[in-house]
Amino acid sequence: MPEQENWLTAIFNDHLAGLANAILGALNIHAENPARPWQTWIVMELLVAAILVVLFAAVRSTFSVDKPGKLQHILEVTYEFIKATTDEIGIHHGAKYVPFFGTLFIFILVMNLIGIIPAFESPTMNPAVPAGLAVCTFLYYNTMGIKENGLFKYLAHFAGPMLALAPLMIPIELISHLARPLTLTVRLYGNMFAGETVTNVFIRLTYLIGPVIFMALHVFVAFIQAYVFMLLAVIYVSGATAHEH
Fold first, then answer.
1. Helix or strand or coil: residue 234?
2. What Å distances lie between residue 209 and 6, 118, 213, CA to CA?
3. What is the reported pTM?
4. Among candidates 89, 78, 129, which has minimal Cα distance to 240?
5. C-alpha to C-alpha distance for 112 and 189, rounded to whole angstroms
6. Are 233 and 91 in contact (CB under 8 A)?
7. How far apart are CA 219 and CA 53, in angstroms?
8. Which terminal residue of the chain, N or C, has fewer Cβ atoms less than 10 Å from its own Cβ?
9. Does residue 88 contact residue 81 with C-beta atoms inside 8 Å?
10. DSSP assignment, residue 33?
11. 148-166 per-position pLDDT tens digit
């Protein structure tokens, strides 16, 4: 069945179809329907990115040491929470990784929550979005591991604690690392798809109490899934940047 457009996706397809086809053509990808190349999950992801860029650009000049506003308090608490998480996991000099973890957490959280708005849907309900985030996380922690330890010392992690175990440990470690993007993708996509589907069903079946309960549950799931994704990224970076021999 063709995907149902919301009003924003319809605007993109009515006015920016040429742009989408040009981008897809440059990547040697052909849209199923060139007249309507924009898909809702792409538009929603772009909307979230635009909201965050505009929001932080607008409030940056209002930050104050003497008189912090509510948003500044929220961001400071978020930073301290993420920094504490990196310290608890045991990352050396974890503060330099907090911007990546914070961006990941906030971006996923807003994408999860935007589905609450009528006529919008969470981009994380499409597997392509969690997959993209998972690949970025995979590339990031491997890059940080190589940068922190050097290529040869980082690759030595795959051999295990004893050289004699290397023939056994190397295949196990390779499979484990290559499976991480898949598990990150399936976990986020599966939970958000199931959560939003259940919420939409009960909203249609009930009128007041039911929707409130399941909307609250949806918000809870959105926070938990954003946190779990970020936490796994922290764990992966911790393992990749460890200096233990």
1. helix
2. 26, 18, 6
3. 0.91
4. 89
5. 10
6. no
7. 22
8. N
9. no
10. S
11. 999 999 988 888 777 778 8
Distance CA 39, CA 35 (A): 12
Q: Which amino acid would we find at residue 161?
A: P
- Tokens 């598990």 locate to 183
Tokens encoding 15: 């006015």
State the Cα–Cα distance between residues 245 and 243, nearest whole angstrom. 6
Q: Are 74 and 161 in contact (CB under 8 A)?
A: no
Angle formed by the axes of helices 98-113 and 209-241, to 10°?
160
Residue with tokens 């971006």: 107
Max alpha carbon distance in the chain (Å)? Answer: 65
∠ at Cα 79 (76, 82), nearest 5°? Answer: 150
3-class DSSP assignment, residue 75 = helix
CA distance 236 to 228: 12
Q: What is the dihedral of CA 26, 31, 35, 38, to 10 degrees?
A: -90
Question: What's the per-residue H, E or C state across 173-186?
Answer: HHHHHHHHHHHHHH
Q: Which of 15, 74, 20 is nearest to 42 (CA)?
A: 20
Structure confidence by residue, pLDDT tens digits, 175-223: 999 999 999 999 999 999 988 777 777 766 666 555 677 778 889 999 9
